[in-house]
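ugh ok fine here u go
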Amino acid sequence: MRHNGRTPIKASEMRPEHLNLREGEPRMAVCADCSTWHRLTRSMIAAHRDGVPVDKTGDRRYFGDKPAGGRRCPGSAQRVVIDISVEQWGEKLLDAETTAASRRTSRPIRKPRPQTAPAAGQMPVATRSLREQLGQHLQGDCARCRAGRCAQVIELRRRIRRTGQIAAASVAPIYGQLRTALHEHGASCAPCKTGSPCTAGRRLAARMTGIARGHLARSS
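structure:
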């Protein structure tokens, strides 16, 4: 096998994962032309074929059927100069594997689950009837809904959003006032500071708990 005439490739300039210099194993390299592994024979990549079909010619250099695998790869007989030691090659290979592993994300990417419509019992009381109307309308055969231009659906959704905002706003001011009063009382009350709430502190906390539970009951 003769050298293909190209400039020899230095092993130190090759990607370490494209070279195999392990002791006890045949030395191999990846052909730069066809990206396939081949044995190094006399520091040259063994002759191989790249699968490109060969046109028939009148001259025949051999007898019998044409060998399978197409033409002879131009990367055959490429000289590879082994100018690094096995230890140096192993260190470069380890560094390359470590860099590649650090680029991979360790956090799994989860696809968002499709949101399902809440059951009737889970709907806020203030908007339950509006949501039921919307659900009944969407189950029907509405041509405007299929075209995405149904005025009734737009109006129902606007009323549901507005009603929910009003219901939430009716509770928030009272709860906020009680929370402010509890903080101010706790800052000036010695028993509350020590973790043993006084009667007034317990009453304020109880009223806040009652409002929160009532809001949750109306929303479920």
